[in-house]
Amino acid sequence: MTDVRPTADDLGVLSTLFRSEQGGHEQVVLCQDRESGLKAVIAIHSTALGPALGGTRFHAYASDEEAVLDALNLARGMSYKNALAGLDHGGGKAVIIGDPDVLKSEELLLAYGRFVASLGGRYVTACDVGTYVADMDVVARECRWTTGRSPEGGGAGDSSVLTAFGVFQGMRASAQHLWGDPTLRGRKVGVAGVGKVGHHLVEHLLQDGAEVVITDVRQESLDRVLAKHPQVTAVADTEALIRTQGLDIYAPCALGGALDDDSVPALTARVVCGAANNQLAHPGVEKDLADRGILYAPDYVVNAGGVIQVADELHGFDFARAKAKATKIFDTTLAIFDRAKADGIPPAAAADRLAEQRMAEARARRAV
């Protein structure tokens, strides 16, 4: 008889699921398809505002427990992001465990689509790190609750375009709040990560007259930007970027956890505003930033352009309509800075309060 008792790793994953500090998720699904090699986690944090909406991350995690933790954190972030973006969606996220360059296949994506479909619309998936528009086209063959598809597949295409645009609006709001002018002309901006979103952000910054410094772990990403924009400066790594003298704005646009006990004391920038999710490595970092006089534009507020785009796709995509909604990130960011100042709290805490208020109001309406 096969031993089906939980392993130590299984118990570690389960203990992660039930830690109260992860935010009281409504549902977590552990998915496995042995034939395709699929191992995935789907986390639904909240459906108070509507079906949970969030992307699928494909990443080689060090452990299953790390993957679960990432899914939980990302799903919670999506609840807050969707709330402040004014969307009628709750928050969810999925992670597929493994190196996408090695493991990704049509069979695996189809198997993943079947798991998402089994949730009956409680979770709507889209692209994230390691997944692309073409992947969503495959997932959609098994699951109608899929967005971020290609125009040929009935979708809106690359959501990184509006993600970058939204971050740019957040930077403009930060400049308005700190320097009294929304232009970035003459400001030095450091962009860490010039992949799917970062290279679009560089375009906006240059068009607005900013001086841009970049870094990326992938040389090909650096080469693409430098070939097109020789006026851009590249530095060796993130540590060199955050220590760059004269830096006005630091934009983390790669994986999360960029702001920690090592990076915050080293920052030379007056503003942090980037596309990466979960930039604060742990609670308390937002206070460390405030204590140093560094203005932090909450990541899930400014990077909401992509989710605005994929949400619009569900209703028949109209780029102008979606861009107009993403433009409002400027006003939302300013409102958060004003709330933070009025309440005497960091902007991250102010953003959380506003998002929680909208979710609570939605739950109250349902209870009536």
TrEMBL record:
Catalytic EC class: oxidoreductase
Organism: Streptomyces pathocidini
Domain Glutamate/phenylalanine/leucine/valine/L-tryptophan dehydrogenase C-terminal: 157-367
Self-association state and partner proteins as the record states: Homodimer.
Pathway(s) served: Amino-acid degradation; L-valine degradation
EC identifiers of the protein: 1.4.1.23
Protein name: Valine dehydrogenase
Domain of life: Bacteria
Catalytic activity line of the entry: L-valine + NAD(+) + H2O = 3-methyl-2-oxobutanoate + NH4(+) + NADH + H(+)
Family, similarity comment: Belongs to the Glu/Leu/Phe/Val dehydrogenases family.
